[in-house]
Amino acid sequence: xxxxxITENEGTAIETSTNEATSASVLANREGLNIKKVSHAxxxxxALQDVSFEVEAGQVVALLxxxxxxxxxxxxxxxxxxxxxxxxxxxxxxxxxxxPARGRSIGMVFQNYALFPHLTVAENIGYGLACRRMPxxxxxxxxxxxxxxxRLESFAKRLPRELxxxxxxxxAVARALAxxxxxxxxxxxxxxxxxxxxxxxxxxxxRLQRNxxxxxxxxxxxxxxxQTVADKLVVMNAGRVEQIGSPEVLYDQPASLFVNGFLGHAxxxxxxxTNPSSLRLAADQELQLGRELSFRPGYQLTMTARPxxxxxAPKGEKNTLDARWIRAAPLGHMLSVDLxxxxxxxxxxxxxxxxxxxxxxxxxxxxxxxxxxxxxxPKENDQ
Length: 383
Ligand SMILES: Nc1ncnc2c1ncn2[C@@H]1O[C@H](COP(=O)(O)OP(=O)(O)OP(=O)(O)O)[C@@H](O)[C@H]1O
Ligand SMILES: [Mg+2]
Prior knowledge:
The chain is built from ten helices and 20 strands. By secondary structure, the protein is of the alpha+beta class.
């Protein structure tokens, strides 16, 4: 069994190579998770609309999107806790439509740990196995293996309330993995942890997930977490998939204004195309793009620029925008600067901290945009 080989080698130099070999052979006969055109409505209100994506065997996909966009509903559909109105869900080639939750070979971890408070750590981890009527001795062996996997060997007899948040989270993951599932679903698993602990538990989770090569879908609100943990991101908005791609592709080539602003910060500039290669912004500021746009003159659009694609120049310098320096705050070796355009549009820039003399609050500066990195979208409705 995969877990046994991993735990025996844990912490040794040969761990990685052994497990990579193990994972590769385990992945060979698996097809991962396939979600095809899944739709669901609650009392006539659409919660999921034609949601489709794939999770390759052994991959982690993060579902990302604002509150209420359908992330948990989709996860519950995959787990079998809800039967979607339409669509297909396949795990390793098997159609799950008529398979009840307990027959799906899926482990799930909920946001609030959901450990049984009156059961010890060991009893919590063994719960699913006891439900499956596994003999006691086998349960004990499997629980011991899981405890080693999440590095909680000495905590077996404790109750959940005697553990830290991070430890409880590891027990929840161990409990989901104990039944040796084909896929793991996590609904905001680290949301309740503070920043430092969250980073630590994320690292532990990545190590575990990579070692087991288990197909995983994780829901998160946290874009940084999604980018750290996932191979692929699925950004959802109002029940629909907005974009699917690697964290880098989504950050660098956001397909919509929504994705652009959801992953990282996007400064927005409302503009009108004046000729094929220039724009007029608010307060009649002109910007030469140095390349031709495919939009016709008069077209109104929203241009976006990330804070790291802005820099500060002396006021009035060629092809910069007039802006007012409002305040600056250090962010590691960078400086996060709040500025304001003449018509009041707020702008955030991220610049080197040692840029030279720092403008004083309220002073006028030039704002230079890295015009190779800006994006253009059709104008927003409120424009
Ligand atoms: N059992 C239910 N009955 C009726 N409406 C529901 C039910 N469950 C969810 N909804 C609605 O479906 C939509 C999607 O909910 P869902 O829980 O999937 O959102 P979510 O993306 O997980 O949000 P959050 O990030 O806040 O957890 C919401 O509008 C919600 O109110
Ligand atoms: Mg949710």
